[in-house]
Amino acid sequence: MAHEEKNNASGEEQLPMLEVTEDKDQADLLPTPVSASASAPRNGAGSGKRLSATMIIPVWIVLSSAVIIYNNYLYNTLEFRFPVFLVTWHLTFAAIGTRILARTTHLVDGAKDVNMTKDMFLRSILPIGLLFSGSLILSNTAYLYLSVAYIQMLKAFTPVAILLISWTFRIQDPNKRLAVIVFMISSGVALASHGELRFNLVGFLTQAAAVAFEASRLVMIEILLHGLKMNPLVSLHYYAPVCALINLAVLPFTEGLAPFYEVLRLGPLILISNALVAFLLNIAAVFLVSAGSGLVLTLAGVFKDILLITGSVLIFGAQITPLQVLGYSIALVGLVLYKTAGSK
Predict the structure, then answer these.
(1) Residue 77: how many CB atoms within 10 A of its CB?
(2) How many whole angstroms separate alpha carbon 64 and alpha carbon 305?
(3) DSSP letters of 29-65?
(4) Residue 134 CA to its chain's centroid (Å)
(5) Cβ–Cβ under 8 Å, residues 246 and 50
(6) What is d(CA 261, CA 53) in angstroms, rounded to the nearest whole number?
(7) Which of 96, 161, 231, 342 could form a disulfide with 15 if both were Cys (CB 3.0 to 4.6 A apart)?
(8) Is the pTM of this model over 0.85?
């Protein structure tokens, strides 16, 4: 989604910073492609908005958590350890799905308002698509080495990465409040990492690279697509085919033909249902962006992450320590402050 859309996170035009609250979540397989900033509709009764938020936020939390848990189940329980193939399959499913929705519903009508020229595609969509592909592949690969709980903790560093990139390239100026937030989140993630019982350097570096790709993608969206309105599905409509082709080019050099043989073992039902859950998450994101304020969505994302970590412990037997709980709590406070800092 581009600047005026707000996928589970938001980045309002007038904010003094780039924002990503949720993009750190949506993503684990098909995160909302772009950080957005659409505000909730101004018309309509307040009770209607509250009812909408009450209905859609739990649905989004369930779907977002289901995507991550389902992917982890495929990778580590069913031992389908082919993240590049799975990401490519999801993107292909999304590319087809958005085009079906464009013909049968109004959910992708926003694509008609986007003047997609060759120059815009080459200078904006393609480079952002490359970063998106890198982010998806790396973030999914991390599940081969790290627990769901620890990965969620590391994702809390995404806003810090965005701020550091923005400061480095002078897209925005640092200030004391943001410096304190950077310190809080960084310290919290460092404590969580220090307390990790099953620390794996390869997994840590892979997830760190995924965060760097994701942060770079969101910064580039802010620069290259500033002011362009796209909801999550419209963004997916444009990015999914590009990313699928990029991943398809990478696949022979990373996983070869092995995943195609393993698909026969898994069967089509698992692959289709897995991709469908991820696609439904993007549909839910369309309704989510108009369901409440950015802060409400931030808190919903925090609640989802806490549930995911709890679920990782209960379902997959992940081990977390008191030091990790303390560190992640500090990082979450910094994350909420990050959101509220941009609201003032």
Answers:
(1) 10
(2) 10
(3) SS--SS---PPPPSSS-HHHHHHHHHHHHHHHHHHHH
(4) 13
(5) no
(6) 43
(7) 342
(8) no
User: Average pLDDT of the chain?
Assistant: 82
DSSP letter at 142 equals: G
**Closest CA relative to residue 218, chosen from 28, 29, 14, 31:** 31
**Amino acid at the residue 332:** L
Q: Encode pLDDT of 205-238 as tens digits.
A: 999 999 999 999 999 988 888 767 777 888 899 9
Look-up: residue for tokens 């402050």?
A: 337
Helix, strand, coil percent values for the chain (each to nearest 5): 70, 0, 30
Q: How many secondary structure helices (H) and strands (E) does the chain include? A: 13, 0
- What does the pLDDT read at residue 294? 64
CB neighbours of 259 closer than 8 A, spacing ≥ 6? 80, 82, 84, 85, 86, 251
The span from the CA of 135 to the CA of 27, in Å, is: 9
Report the Cα 200 to chain-centroid distance in Å: 22
State the residue for tokens 């815009």. 120
**Residue-wise over 267-288: b if at least 16 C-beta within 10 A, else e?**
eeebbeebbebbbbbbbbbbbb
**Position with higher pLDDT, 321 vs 290:** 321
Per residue in 103-135, pLDDT (tens digit) is 999 888 888 888 888 888 888 899 999 999 999
- What token pair was written down for 244? 């699928």
Say if residue 73 is exposed, middle or buried (CB neighbours under 10 Å; 0-12, 13-18, 19+).
middle
Whether 246 contacts 129, CB under 8 Å: yes
Give the residue ranges of DSSP H helices in 195-293: 201-224, 232-254, 258-266, 268-288
Does position 13 have pLDDT exceeding 50, yes or no? Answer: no
Of the candidates 210, 229, 212, 231, the residue with the CA atom closest to the CA atom of residue 220: 212
The whole-angstrom separation of Cα 143 and Cα 118 is 36
Cβ 191 vs Cβ 337: under 8 Å: no
For residue 328, pLDDT over 50 is answered with yes
Residue type, 188: G
Structure tokens given for 145: 């080495």
